[in-house]
Amino acid sequence: MAKYRIVTPAGASFTVAGGGYDLEMEALQGMDAEIVEAPMDTAGFIAAAKDADAIYAKGIPITAEIIESLKNCKSITLGSVGVDSVDVKAATRAGIPVTNVPDTFIEEVADHAMTLLLSTFRRVIEQDKMVREHRWKEGRPALLKIPRLMGQTLGFVSFGRVARAVAKRAAPFGLRLIAYDPFLDETQISEHGVIPVSLNDVMSQSDFVSMHAPARPECTHLLKEEHFRKMKKSAIFINTGRGPTVDEAALTKALSEGWIAYAGLDVLEVEPPSHNNPLLGMDNVILSAHTASASARFDEARKRRVGSELALILSGKWPMSCVNPAVLQNTKLQRWQPVSIGRGPNS
Questions:
Q1: Hey, what's the torsion of the CAs at 321, 325, 331, 332, to 10 degrees?
Q2: What sequence ranges are listed for the domain D-isomer specific 2-hydroxyacid dehydrogenase NAD-binding (predicted)?
Q3: Is 271 an annotated catalytic residue?
Q4: What local confidence, expressed as pLDDT, does residue 289 receive?
Q5: H or E element, residue 287
Q6: Is 290 a catalytic residue?
């Protein structure tokens, strides 16, 4: 039996093709570690994972019940940005670090947010449909009703890594940038050329509202009917964050009753959506299947990062990213510093 046993749910993966854990194991080579698959039902998973040295979380919720059954777990590691599948509070009570990959897919999500912004604003789906339906002459009159992009206001709800990357992309288009984030000091927002404002100001002033709030309990239905009623009738709502941060019934009402003009959504409150979700039949909505982070590097990047985090913790070092860092203070894990290789004093 290997010295370190990492347990993960069987058959649960974002993998596009193939399988196995070769990429995760690269960083674990020489550590006498193994990744073992366990049943996806709670009882079966608990039976297989109770003595695990680490949990590679994917596919099933890692609940308080599961966490409380772990006797020797040193880490719960995710290959995603979101950590909503793990009961982080229960892990914190148990003294178990929860790690994620918050900086791996920033550029892809920011690209997707800008894609949704531009395609909704220029009514790309409508224009495509007009051409295919031999309504060529209707295209130009439809766009003559829309102002130019330069000078419009883009407002961010939450201003983390992705929102900052979107702001960097949006600035050259001549957009005025504003943001609401109660967890950031005003200077942390303004140093990116973005004006810090209240949530009400974001909703009422913006021509585009880009939602980036994380999937935390306090952010569930952060945007409600009252917020959508504050938006301009010409405004566009974009969400590449998490579906549950928005009251979807209120958003649907806003779109159907004309409180706002359009929406570009990569995430929904329930995924995949039911066949009778009204958003699926709306012409003023562009949808994608929670794919904003996907690219050719998706699998390799996140899997290698998972392996690195597991290797650090199992070798007694702090992880690169921990969502409940307070637990690290009470562990025997050592801080580490990245080492620059091949750089002289004049580099």
A1: 40
A2: 114-292
A3: yes
A4: 97
A5: strand 285-287
A6: yes
